[in-house]
Write a structure and sequence with these properties.
Elements lengths: L9 E2 L9 H12 L4 E5 L8 E7 L2 E7 L5 E5 L14 E3 L4 E3 L6 E3 L5 E3 L21 E5 L2 E5 L28 E10 L3 H8 L5 H4 L1 H6 L16 H4 L5 H4 L25 H6 L2 E5 L3 E5 L4 E10 L2 E10 L1 H5 L6 H24 L9 E2 L4 H13 L5
Antiparallel strand pairs: 1-17, 2-11, 3-4, 3-6, 4-5, 7-8, 8-9, 10-11, 12-16, 13-14, 14-15, 15-16
Helix pairs in contact: 2-9
The chain binds FE2/S2 (inorganic) cluster and fe (ii) ion.
The site of fe (ii) ion (FE2) has 5 residues, from loops.
């Protein structure tokens, strides 16, 4: 089998794709308005009437568990004169009615129907409350992960939402795990730069010294053992520098490498040997799976030059309840890595405005970026 490396010269994307406001508006319509977007793990809205809001560019969506336990999603906009209904990022509604803070139109949390208009006068002739329900957003769940689609009638295609398939997570009990920590950061870069950076490891040894120490293969600047030119001989080697696992003695992505005796009970010896597994759903989410936890990372564009990253750490309930387990051991390790990536993305963004720079080139190791670019061009109706 051949290596995955690119053998032909490939240009990277035009620089204006990373900062042009008109291009960004088209992306919001063609990509973000057209795909299943990750919101959060279901454990974050476990109780009835708990909600989260998610902002994608200038669109704000309210996602909640209704009073009967079903998950619903609405555009976060009042039908009276367009006020935002809920200006918090998360919380619990204290009644079955969702009241607009402006003139107090009240909607059913369960159905989105307009219930009352808080006016003492007779309603104008021809006014029909039934025509002023909240605008619905499609919402679905994949193994405990909640996804929305702006198009209320979008077809749910769970087998197609992941470009990097999630089968390595088959033994992870993700639907029963609970969120133990959330971390958010706004990065001053285009959202595509985040994905490009995630999809290559040419930067690993210099940007991520701690991670490269934990995952020795990253010192070769590759993401897959097959990427090494001499992979056929080397991958027979159990040395993690070539097999891709964690350094000898390390069990998970944590500061000291220890899983603190809280290995996920359903994982096999083979899963533990891999050390870390991934799945990704463009444009909005990737999953990392480790011996004692799962990390779900959400990517949402704020503007053409800002992207918000939201990471959730999921644990088995026994792990969360174990007083001897220090969550910070895994949280702070990943935060170190994500802060380093944020720095790299911001550095990249700052250089893109240079007048003579139109586009760059991809190196052989950047084959996933090439697939990402092809996907983008296809979604944008541009020639691949
Ligand atoms: S805008 Fe919501 S009640 Fe007026
Ligand atoms: Fe990185």
């Amino acid at each position: 089998m051949d290596s995955n490396h690119l053998t032909h010269l490939e240009e990277s994307l035009p620089s204006y794709w990373y900062y042009d406001e008109d291009f960004f508006r088209k992306e919001v319509a063609n990509i973000w308005g057209n795909h299943w977007i990750y919101v959060c793990h279901k454990s974050r809205i476990e109780k009835n009437r708990t909600f989260v809001t998610i902002k994608i560019a200038n669109q704000n969506i309210l996602v909640l568990r209704d009073s009967k336990g079903s998950i619903k999603a609405y555009f976060n906009t009042c039908r009276h004169r367009g006020s935002m209904l809920c200006d918090q990022e998360t919380g619990v509604f204290d009644s079955k009615l969702l009241r607009c803070p402006y003139h107090q139109w009240a909607y059913s949390v369960d159905t989105g129907e307009l219930i009352s208009v808080a006016s003492f006068s007779k309603n104008p002739e021809g006014f029909n409350k039934r025509k002023f329900s909240l605008f619905k957003v499609a919402v679905e769940e994949w193994r405990g992960f909640i996804f929305i689609n702006f198009d209320e009638n979008a077809v749910w295609t769970p087998n197609e939402i992941f470009q990097r398939p999630p089968y390595p997570f088959n033994n992870f009990p993700v639907e029963d795990m609970v969120c133990g920590h959330v971390w958010e950061k706004i990065i001053n870069s285009n959202w595509k730069s985040f994905w490009e950076n995630f999809n290559e490891c040419l930067h690993c040894p210099n940007i991520h010294p701690e991670l490269t120490d934990l995952v020795p293969m990253f010192s070769n600047r590759v993401i897959n053992p097959k990427d090494l030119p001499t992979w056929v001989e080397k991958t027979k080697d159990s040395d993690p520098k070539y097999s891709g696992g964690l350094r000898s003695g390390a069990e998970t992505w944590s500061n000291d490498g220890s899983a603190q005796d809280c290995q996920i009970s359903t994982l096999t010896e083979e899963d533990f040997l891999k050390g870390h597994v991934y799945a990704s759903s463009w444009p909005s989410m990737f999953l990392g799976g480790y011996a004692d936890h799962v990390r779900a990372v959400r990517v949402t564009p704020v503007s053409s030059e800002k992207v918000k990253i939201t990471a959730e750490w999921l644990f088995e309930k026994d792990t969360i309840n174990n007083k001897n387990y220090d969550i910070n051991n895994v949280v702070s390790f990943a935060c170190t890595v994500m802060e380093q990536d944020a720095y790299a993305c911001e550095l990249n963004q700052k250089g893109l405005h240079s007048i003579p720079y139109r586009n760059g080139v991809l190196m052989p190791e950047e084959y996933v970026i090439k697939s990402f670019h092809e996907w983008l061009k296809n979604e944008m109706g541009e020639k691949a």
